[in-house]
Automatic annotation (TrEMBL):
It catalyses: 7,8-dihydroneopterin 3'-triphosphate + H2O = 6-carboxy-5,6,7,8-tetrahydropterin + triphosphate + acetaldehyde + 2 H(+). Its cofactor is Zn(2+). Pathway: Purine metabolism; 7-cyano-7-deazaguanine biosynthesis. Pfam families: PTPS. Keywords: Lyase, Metal-binding, Zinc. Belongs to the PTPS family. QueD subfamily. This is 6-carboxy-5,6,7,8-tetrahydropterin synthase. It comes from Paranoxybacillus vitaminiphilus. The keyword Aminoacyl-tRNA synthetase does not apply.
Length: 270
């Protein structure tokens, strides 16, 4: 059984390599390179796993989880300027993926009666990193685009389409505010602390996905869906294909069609 606890804290940091020029730091890290720093209200999801206890009806006392995590966060992170006050991040870059990797190493053996399963660190609503029991760290960047579409398959009759898709088969179409999650994997670079250069990732997604689909009618305005039914299942597969050659460490495509409908795709080989 798995149990998740959310922890909230605030911290400041900057991204800079001291041996680099100002120009190079700005090119790689953008506004995050400002020596004066910036800050975030972080959200840390701590997931533990353990055996269900029949007598108590719980896996572990949540207060025991809180004691371990909150004392660690308060001592090392909350209210701190990480580059200046944290010994580890005086040497290593406090990127989201770097922080979650450090947290895993420090917390993994601290729990009693349960085992740490996964840490998810949200820097903001559009960026988060995850670390589990393997060596892999993932980083997810979130994007938004608005599109219209009509769910209609050329391989089905008019009656079959209407019966299957209902109002979504409306001949004039309908629309959504899509939220796209692009997840990459790897080990944080020892110099930059990054799994991927976020500026380059943003450029690929902007060029290959957002410019093609944002404020478009997918059936009528895009080549990808000229003869392909633009379901969200098809959309995540198409987006994977558009990005796979540009992002070699692509791990997953996630797509929120609505607040209730979510789809994800890990590529053809998984």
């Amino acid at each position: 059984m798995y149990l998740l606890r959310k922890i909230f804290f605030s911290a400041a940091h900057y991204y800079r390599v001291s041996s680099w020029s100002e120009e190079q730091n700005k090119k790689v890290f953008g506004p995050c390179s400002s020596i004066h720093g910036h800050g975030h209200d972080y959200v840390l999801d701590v997931m533990v796993t353990g055996a269900f206890q029949q007598d108590s009806g719980i896996v572990v006392n949540i207060n025991d989880v809180d004691k371990v995590v909150k004392s660690f966060i308060q001592e090392e992170f909350d209210g701190k300027f990480l580059n200046l006050e944290h010994p580890h991040f005086q040497k290593y870059m406090p990127t989201t993926e770097g922080i979650v990797s450090y947290m895993w190493n420090r917390l993994e053996e601290r729990f009693q009666g349960c085992r740490l399963h996964k840490l998810t660190l949200h820097e903001n609503d559009f960026l988060y990193a995850e670390k589990g029991r393997d060596n892999m760290v993932t980083l997810t960047r979130k994007y938004h685009f608005s599109s219209a579409h009509r769910l209609h398959s050329e391989q089905l009759s008019e009656e079959e389409n209407l019966r299957l898709f209902g109002k979504c088969n409306n001949v004039h179409g309908h629309g959504h505010n899509y939220y796209l999650e692009v997840t990459v994997f790897g080990e944080p670079d020892p110099v930059t602390g990054m799994i991927v250069n976020l500026s380059e990732l943003d450029q690929h997604v902007e060029r290959e996905v957002l410019q093609k689909f944002d404020h478009k009618h997918l059936n009528l305005d895009t080549e990808e869906f000229k003869h392909l039914n633009p379901t969200s299942e098809n959309l995540v597969i198409v987006i994977w294909k558009l990005l796979q050659d540009k992002i070699p460490n692509l791990y997953k495509i996630g797509l929120w069609e609505t607040q209730k409908n979510y789809f994800e795709y890990y590529g053809p080989n998984r």
